[in-house]
């Protein structure tokens, strides 16, 4: 909100320079984005938080300034005088509220024989400084009062209001209205369904014609023009929830909807209406009808809130003098009254005050809210920094140790951790959602692109890769420790409800170069082998992974795999539940996401992974370093296409030689001198004994048995050197 410094001084005699005032307001909770000095003097751009609608007017900001500097607030007390013997407003206009849940108060005044003309210079200057265009004197007055008191008003051409009657109701099916901006707007989605709780509309006559969207914008059919002679001033209070729903549905945000949508002051319409009438009489002349039509079905008694010094000490950790407490709360309108038995004793630990909630501070409901008000006005810098006394000892989460190990390993491999919001678009979530899982839809989504909770961590990981590529970051390696959300499909099971399943997962994404070009090395693109190698490095923390062919449809048909925990498959058992999947993103999906280079993704469930890491830690035994040297032997093999290295390693390990400490694949070749239907694989086996140095004869014996086993079980051929 634009705060005109000279306008502010109409309500409080502040002597501080605009820059100093901006700094002090920021320390008390009203941030000032900038201070501009122009033709109309200094203008402060205040960033008013959503819970402080009282600061959306100069009068509300002046109240804050008065509390900060201990200056008296000059109250607004307009007294527009109707001429003696004038007609009553109640006889000239009728008001009916048919939807009190949408509109809790509606006031109306009538001024006859006005002269519509351009506004005087002082009024134009203040509106211009506030970023509002001048229209004519009557409309400008309504905008001026809104900026002054923070409460919107609307002026009707009285003669265009049918039967001089205003009816406030909710929308009807297929209802339309042409608003002041010249746009015809549909107020309901269709003829069969209305919005939940409806949009509030102001109608005239018998209520069939809408002449305004309550709290948002007026209608074009009753607007003020230079031919207007008689003016009807409307000032009301509308339900903030209904206003926010209306602005979202209509995609129409105005100064009025901003104020009503945050919760305006229900006691302000009477004052704002009088102030508007006073200024219209000054600038447009005319005759004010006596009295006001004020329909107020939603009036509530003010709430009492208790504040104690004991709670101030507990929360803030330091004392605040009695006079400071009473001065701060009194200046803000809370009218504190000392109610404890020791109310004559200054600084008593038993001190207590009863405060009355002002109508413009609906968000202050509890004692802690009053403590916040005292602290911010007194000065947060006056409270010493200290930690509160701990009520219970701190304790790490059960899997924090393993999560830390996982995080450190991934960072060591060159990945960066990200944190994403789980709200995603349903059509994007469907690309990665597994069969049998129903999406967890949000009942009140923030936008159409955030309508469901992700059913796979891959959804947001792919989006993060996409964002990096679109912003020129071609090389990216990312990981996220997060959760995915699914509704378990219980269709066909009578009497059972839908079960929500929330699963902790690790997602990994990589694209671009695995190695950048340097003086000694050429650049190399990240490949499925790099992803598998990084995952196998993680597997060292939990006893190893077993890779099997297969994967979901969003992965590349030839570059994917299903991951199992090696420790979860007992000897001789067939299989275990999959831990996760990994592979290259399928071209079909990559094109939908407009990804112009290869992307590699993986997702692992964390609960079984942490269980395996815990078991691996408990089973770990330390042994002395071997005294005798290790010996490596390479086997260059011809293998049939489709034979996996895991089968080769399993065959070698099945021989049961205790001296074999590792089996690794070091090279793969296809092409010249390789028989059709086969490929060449170089396998390196490392032998080592803890009892003696292995002889050449022993190594030769082991090697011969390895080759024989590979020939028998896999049809392998030893390649001639």
Brief account:
The chain has 721 residues and is an alpha+beta fold. It contains 20 helices and 35 strands. The chain has 5 domains: 2-69, Phenylalanyl-tRNA Synthetase, Chain B, domain 1 (2-Layer Sandwich), CATH 3.30.56.10; 89-295, Phenylalanyl-trna Synthetase, Chain B, domain 3 (Phenylalanyl-tRNA Synthetase, Chain B, domain 3, 3-Layer(bba) Sandwich), CATH 3.50.40; 304-381, Phenylalanyl-tRNA Synthetase, Chain B, domain 1 (2-Layer Sandwich), CATH 3.30.56.10; 400-619, 2-Layer Sandwich (BirA Bifunctional Protein, domain 2), CATH 3.30.930.10; 631-718, 2-Layer Sandwich (Alpha-Beta Plaits), CATH 3.30.70.
How would you explain this protein's 3D organization?
The protein is an alpha+beta fold and 721 residues long. The chain folds into five domains: 68 residues, Phenylalanyl-tRNA Synthetase, Chain B, domain 1, CATH 3.30.56; 207 residues, Phenylalanyl-trna Synthetase, Chain B, domain 3 (Phenylalanyl-tRNA Synthetase, Chain B, domain 3, 3-Layer(bba) Sandwich), CATH 3.50.40.10; 78 residues, 2-Layer Sandwich (Phenylalanyl-tRNA Synthetase, Chain B, domain 1), CATH 3.30.56; 220 residues, 2-Layer Sandwich (BirA Bifunctional Protein, domain 2), CATH 3.30.930.10; 88 residues, 2-Layer Sandwich (Alpha-Beta Plaits), CATH 3.30.70.380. It is built from 20 helices and 35 strands. Strands 19, 21, 24, 25, 28, 29, 30 and 31 form an eight-stranded mixed β-sheet that branches. Strands 4-7-10-11-12 form a five-stranded mixed β-sheet. Strand 33 and strand 34 form a beta hairpin. The protein is elongated and about 125 Å long. The N and C termini lie far apart (82 Å).
């Amino acid at each position: 909100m634009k705060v005109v410094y000279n306008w502010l001084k109409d309500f409080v005699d502040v002597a501080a320079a605009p820059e100093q005032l901006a700094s002090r307001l920021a320390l008390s909770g009203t941030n000032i984005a900038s201070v501009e000095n122009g033709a109309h003097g200094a203008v402060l751009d205040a960033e008013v938080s959503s819970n402080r609608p009282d600061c959306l007017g100069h009068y509300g900001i002046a109240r804050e300034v008065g509390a900060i500097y201990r200056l008296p607030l000059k109250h607004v007390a307009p007294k527009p005088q109707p001429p003696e013997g004038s007609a009553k407003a109640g006889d000239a206009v009728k008001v009916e509220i048919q939807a009190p849940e949408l509109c809790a108060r509606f006031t109306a005044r009538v001024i006859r024989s006005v002269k519509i003309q351009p506004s005087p210079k002082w009024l134009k200057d203040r509106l211009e400084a506030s970023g509002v265009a001048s229209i004519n004197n009557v409309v400008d007055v309504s905008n001026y009062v809104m900026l002054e008191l923070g409460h919107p008003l609307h002026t009707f051409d009285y003669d265009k209001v049918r039967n001089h009657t205003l009816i406030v109701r909710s929308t009807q099916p297929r209802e339309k209205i042409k608003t002041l901006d010249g746009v015809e707007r549909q107020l309901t989605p269709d003829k069969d369904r209305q919005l939940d709780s409806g949009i509030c509309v102001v109608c005239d006559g018998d209520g069939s014609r809408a002449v305004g969207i309550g709290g948002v914008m007026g209608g074009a059919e009753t607007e003020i023009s230079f031919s207007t002679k008689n003016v009807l001033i409307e000032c009301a209070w509308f339900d903030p929830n209904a206003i926010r729903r209306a602005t979202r549905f209509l995609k129409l945000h105005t100064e009025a909807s901003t104020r009503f949508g945050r919760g305006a002051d229900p006691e302000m319409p009477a004052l704002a209406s009088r102030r508007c009438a006073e200024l219209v009489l000054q600038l447009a002349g005319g005759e004010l009808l006596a009295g006001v039509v004020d329909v107020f079905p939603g009036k509530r008694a003010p709430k009492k809130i208790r504040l104690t010094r004991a709670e101030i000490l507990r929360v803030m950790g330091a004392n605040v003098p009695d006079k400071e407490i009473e001065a701060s709360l009194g200046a803000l309108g809370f009218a504190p009254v000392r109610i404890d038995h020791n109310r004559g004793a200054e600084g008593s630990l038993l001190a207590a005050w009863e405060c009355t909630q002002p109508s413009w501070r609906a968000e202050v409901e509890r004692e802690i809210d009053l403590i916040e008000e005292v602290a911010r006005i007194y000065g947060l810098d006056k409270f010493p920094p200290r930690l509160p006394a701990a009520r219970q000892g701190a304790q790490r989460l059960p899997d924090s140790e393993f999560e830390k190990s996982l995080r450190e390993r991934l960072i060591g491999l060159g990945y960066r951790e990200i944190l994403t919001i789980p709200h995603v678009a349903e059509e994007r979530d469907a690309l990665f959602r597994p069969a049998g899982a129903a999406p967890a839809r949000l009942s009140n989504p923030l936008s159409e692109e955030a309508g469901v909770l992700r059913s796979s961590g891959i959804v947001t990981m792919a989006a993060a890769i996409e964002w990096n590529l679109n912003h020129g970051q071609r090389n990216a390696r990312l990981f996220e420790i997060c959760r995915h959300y699914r509704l378990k499909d219980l269709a066909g099971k009578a009497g059972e409800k839908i079960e929500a399943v929330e699963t902790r997962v690790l997602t990994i994404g990589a694209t671009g170069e695995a190695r950048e070009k340097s003086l000694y090395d050429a650049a190399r693109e990240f490949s499925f082998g790099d992803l598998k190698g990084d995952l196998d490095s993680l597997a060292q923390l939990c006893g190893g992974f077993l890779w099997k062919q297969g994967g979901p449809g969003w992965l590349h048909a030839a570059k994917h795999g299903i991951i199992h925990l090696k420790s979860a498959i007992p000897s001789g058992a067939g299989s275990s539940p999959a831990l996760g999947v990994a592979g290259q993103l399928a071209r079909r999906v990559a094109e939908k996401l407009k990804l112009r280079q290869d992307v590699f993704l993986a997702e692992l469930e964390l609960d079984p992974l942490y269980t395996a890491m815990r078991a691996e830690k408990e089973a770990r035994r330390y042994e002395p370093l071997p005294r005798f040297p290790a010996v490596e032997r390479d086997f260059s093999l011809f293998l049939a296409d489709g034979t996996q290295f895991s089968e080769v390693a399993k065959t070698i390990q099945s021989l049961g030689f205790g001296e074999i400490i590792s089996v690794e694949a070091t090279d793969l070749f296809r092409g010249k001198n390789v028989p059709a239907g086969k490929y060449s694989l170089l396998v390196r086996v490392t032998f080592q004994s803890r009892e003696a140095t292995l002889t050449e004869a022993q190594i030769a014996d082991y090697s011969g048995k390895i080759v024989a086993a590979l020939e028998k079980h896999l049809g392998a051929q030893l390649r001639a050197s």
